[in-house]
Amino acid sequence: MPGKFMNRKAFCIFNLTLCVFAKPVDASNPAKVLLSHGNASVEIYLFGATVTSWKVGGVEKIFLSKKAHLDGSKAIRGGIPLVFPHFGTIPTSTLPQHGFARVSTWSRLDPPSETETATSVAFTLSPRAVPAALAAKWPHAFRLTYTVTLTTDTLTTTLKVENTADVAWEFTSLLHTYFATRGVAHVGVKGLEGASFVDKVAEGAPRAVESRTAVIVAGEVDRVYEGVDDKAEVTVTGTGHGDVVVHRTNLPDVVVWNPWTDKAKAMADFGDDEFDNMICVEAGSVAKFISLQPGETWTGGQTLKTA
Ligand code: BG6
């Protein structure tokens, strides 16, 4: 609302502490949406609706690979790629790993909305915007709405999935958040003690129960923690970029991933040494398929909060 926006600018002149300023589009790059609120900011590419930066007080919280493709030719390596309609690869689908949401170009809905406490913007995706070859592999009618909300100390990303078909279908989904680190050996992911997990690195992908108060990285890590109580806060500590608490809503599973040295070298869009600069802590609903009846919706999301 331009009128409201002008009023807020005028308000900011008198009260800098509550100053809110939203720049919906980066003039130099129309494929990217920028929001700021107080001293926090977020960048979101329309490609994949991928958040690629979240800064609080000038400190970057999110990892983006120096080799990431930002031209829509490949899923963005870093940020918060959106996984839909399935996590990983599954025997019943020929879609690529993690589905098509992260490689489709989303549309921004209304202009960002601003209040004194938050700035928010939403994106939508439906089948006609999915690359045709991928849409053909998952021929279901759907509408996704992804809302990104920024406050001075939080970033909330919420996905709404609607079944617009006349038959039921099922899916899994995940927010594949890459946190920036200065030396991943210093990082601890707290809040997963007692959770059952699948270890995707170990031979045969065995199940075990996490016994540590903090998950650490001292080699390749790829674990799917299942059914972690929504109320359990997961905290990413020791990143060198400030601790972040992950609050989850309707996302019971948490994936912790670091490719370590060999897999880093094998990824063309990831620097050989960048395994040291990131850890993925991914809130999702991936252990069981979610079934949606015609007309039904499902909503899941996370709030990242500076600690
Ligand atoms: C994680 C998976 O979520 O994503 C890993 O658990 C995978 O197995 C990683 O390697 C990265 O996936 P991609 O497709 O972005 O290389």
What can you tell me about this protein's structure?
- The structure is a single chain.
- The protein is mainly β.
- It contains three helices and 23 strands.
- The strands form three sheets. Strands 7, 8, 9, 10, 11, 14, 17, 19, 20 and 23 form a ten-stranded antiparallel beta sheet that branches. Strands 6, 12, 13, 15, 16, 18, 21 and 22 form an eight-stranded antiparallel beta sheet that branches. It has a five-stranded antiparallel beta sheet with strand order 1-2-3-4-5.
- The two termini are 33 Å apart.
- The site of 6-O-phosphono-beta-D-glucopyranose has 9 residues, from strand 21.
- Low-pLDDT ranges: 1-23
Rg on CA atoms, Å: 19 Å
**Bound small molecules, which ones?**
6-O-phosphono-beta-D-glucopyranose
Largest sheet: 10 strands, antiparallel
Average pLDDT figure = 92
Overall shape: globular
Summarize the amount of helix as a percent range: under 10%
Kindly state the number of beta strands.
23
SS summary, helix count: 3
Helix/strand structural class: mainly beta
Report the order of strands and helices: HEEEEEEEEEHEEEEEEEEEEEEHEE
Strand-residue proportion: 35-45%
Distance between the termini: 33 Å
Helix and strand arrangement:
Blueprint: H1 2-14, E1 20-21, E2 32-37, E3 40-45, E4 50-56, E5 59-60, E6 82-83, E7 107-108, E8 113-114, E9 119-125, H2 132-135, E10 142-150, E11 154-163, E12 169-175, E13 178-180, E14 188-190, E15 196-199, E16 207-209, E17 214-215, E18 221-226, E19 234-237, E20 244-249, E21 253-258, H3 260-266, E22 278-292, E23 297-306
Antiparallel strand pairs: 1-2, 2-3, 3-4, 4-5, 6-12, 7-9, 8-9, 9-10, 10-11, 11-23, 12-22, 13-22, 14-17, 14-19, 15-16, 15-18, 18-21, 19-20, 20-23, 21-22
Bound molecules: 6-O-phosphono-beta-D-glucopyranose.
